[in-house]
Amino acid sequence: SAGLDLVGVFLFAILTLMTLIANLVFVEEVIYIYRKIPSSKRSILIWINAAAPVIATTSCIGMWIPRSTMFTDFTAAVFFAIVIHKFLLMMIKECGGQKLFLRRFEKGRFKISTGPCCCCCLCLPRVRITRRTLLWLKLGTFQLAFFRPVLMFLSIVLWTNGNYKPYNLSPDGAAIWINCFIGILTIIALWPVGIMFQQVRTILNCKKIIPKFALYQFILILSQLQAAIINILAMQRIIPCVPPLSSSARGAYMIQQLLIVEMFLITLISRVVYRRRYDDLEPPEGTPEEGDHNEQTP
């Protein structure tokens, strides 16, 4: 950033201000959650609401300190891997928790022919909703939250040894294999979220689950797919180099600057969607009032 002209300094200042505002909005949202939301939901909602500000912050750090880009990207990716798991847990929690969820859908079946894994396999049978299938869905998202930090640590170890170069996607390099493995794990993790959303989107419509899911999807697409596309364009030299910046460096700058603006907007929208207080769902038929009270009490 030492060679920035006046326009560049102004742009960096505006983007930094956006990041600061996003974090202040998030802090204010955390205060609201602690004051107004039951303790059983606080942690999950804070994690989900933190996704956009954290990505904006890591992008801002990477923008000002280009050498830190690999580490900031890793940090954002690990954080969002945890958010994917938390979003699944939030949908279950909004149905009253696991016990009430199973009671509510005890005669239901999960539609597993959904994206991103099996959206074209319409002939797949529906799976009964049981404690075991619910556990498998949780494990499906948890595996990414577990393996992503492990792979990040492995990448850093290989990088310090000179065996990992993020922009070297040749078969001889470690980056292509690690990225492919992460891609597979990510697709597997997104599948349970899609399955659960298909199951609860009608009953949780009163809690605006569709806008919440849309925000989650936007963060996913913008932070993962958009970044991958720009990186590919940079590696193919479609994004031209402008001395002293190489194509890869310009691509990284574009990703970071776009993400700051996008995550700033998502933070503001999330505040509107998540700040509203929604009534709890009616307990399923046959649920005693005391049991329901115990379920809702943190």
TrEMBL record:
Keyword Lipoprotein on entry: no
Cell compartment(s), UniProt: Membrane
Entry protein name: OSTA protein
Membrane topology of this protein: Multi-pass membrane protein
Species: Nothocercus julius
InterPro entries to which the protein is assigned, alphabetical: Ostalpha/TMEM184C
UniProt KW Transmembrane helix keyword: yes
Gene Ontology terms: cellular component: membrane
